[in-house]
Structure formats: C-alpha cells, structure tokens
From TrEMBL:
Entry's transmembrane regions: none
Stated name of the protein: N-acetyltransferase domain-containing protein
Species annotation: Tieghemiomyces parasiticus
SUPFAM superfamilies xref list: Acyl-CoA N-acyltransferases (Nat)
Coiled coil region boundaries: none
Residue numbers spanned by region Disordered: 65-94
Start-end of Low complexity biased regions: 65-82
Superkingdom of source: Eukaryota
Lineage: Eukaryota, Fungi, Fungi incertae sedis, Zoopagomycota, Kickxellomycotina
Amino acid sequence: MPSSTTLSTPPLTVRLTESRAEVDSCRALRRAVFVDEGGFDLTSENDGVDVRALHLIAITIAQSHGSDGRSSSDLSDPASADQDGDQATPDDSPLPIGTLRIFETLDGNPWVQVGKVAVRRTHRSLGIGRLLMHEAERVIMDRFPQHEAIVLDAVARQAPFYTKMGYVVDAERGVYLKKGAPHVRMSKLLRPV
Ligand SMILES: CC(C)(COP(=O)(O)OP(=O)(O)OC[C@H]1O[C@@H](n2cnc3c(N)ncnc32)[C@H](O)[C@@H]1OP(=O)(O)O)[C@@H](O)C(=O)NCCC(=O)NCCS
C-alpha cells in the first residue's frame, strides 16, 4: 500500500509513478528545486538514469483523483499557489508535492541507490520528505529483496535529514564535490544485523 498522511497540507499519497506524464511532472519539480532554486546545472538533471529508475511521486489526493470540477490550479494547496513561480509541469498541470528516484547501480554493487529527493519549497518541514523515504524503503524491500543496503549521495547540508531517517555517513570517504557542491555518501542497511 502506498503511504498516506494527513498533515496541515491536503491529504497526500506517495506512490510509484504510473505514467510517462507523471515522470515528466517529477522531473519538472526537480528542475524547480535543484536547478531554479538550488543553482545546479541543468545537465545534472539529464544524466540518463531516469529511464532505468523507479520514481516516487507525492501528490495531493485531489491531484491523484484528477478533475473534480475545479480548475487545475485549484488542485494545488491554496497555501502554496504560485509562491514558487514554479507551479506548472510541461503540460500545465500542477507540480507534484515531492519526488525521488530509485535505481540499481550498473557496477553490480549489492545496494540500491536513492536520489533526487525533492519536496516543493512551500511544503517543506511537514514530514513529506520522511514519507517519501519510508515509501522508498518499502518499495526497495519489495522490488530488490536481493540487495543489502540503500546508498545515497547527500548534499552535505542535508545530511542531518537522512541521519534522522537512519542513514549513516561514510566517514572514511568524507566530503567530496559532486556537481560543484559538497556531498557525503550515506547508507542504510535494509536488514540490520
Ligand atoms: C531535504 C528535503 C527533501 C527534506 O524534506 P522535508 O519534507 O522538508 O523534510 P521532513 O519535514 O520530512 O523532515 C523530517 C525530519 O528531518 C528534519 N530535517 C529536514 N531537513 C533537514 C535539514 N536540512 N537539516 C536538519 N534536519 C532536517 C526535519 O526537521 C524533521 O525532523 P523531526 O522529525 O525531528 O521533526 C527538502 O528540504 C528538500 O526538498 N530540499 C531541497 C532539495 C534537496 O536538497 N534535496 C536533498 C538532496 S540530497
């Protein structure tokens, strides 16, 4: 079952994307968060991984039910409407609230990688990042039972968020530059011993 919650935002559902259009809307949110807001180069969004990744999408229940008689802009949280200036996907539907992607590395490592974790700026600190990470873990245990751990490259200043989710910094590797920003490698065992 996908994760759901009721926070001070509209009720949300967090689940795997179900269409190419949903993946595109997740990519639009990532561009807003990492490129427009975070200042990363657009090329970092086109690294070729998306086609082989699973994508989680966090959307309001209203968004997931599609048209309910309101206009598409009404479907986003009223508290957030257009404060970002980044509220539309390529087909003009509202941006998802959050996203992340899950993929296996190509070098045969016994782990699964999570990346591009993004929550809409107007919806942060509401527990949505946590919901995404929990659902990622559930999906990974379901789809990749052969793997031992989840690994991620965290922007160093966000490492405390992942620590709260049970991830541990690879201290031996330390801080390294990726896409021009300090990162740390973090991991979490799927079946702690
Ligand atoms: C990082 C991000 C995904 C967190 O999402 P969020 O929905 O705001 O996080 P949550 O509200 O679920 O936070 C869960 C917990 O982590 C804490 N937390 C979140 N970000 C944190 C940070 N940067 N430093 C310390 N703690 C943090 C919260 O306070 C909360 O703690 P609590 O459970 O004790 O209350 C979001 O801030 C984001 O999209 N940032 C921009 C993109 C980005 O940097 N992505 C990560 C790239 S590695």
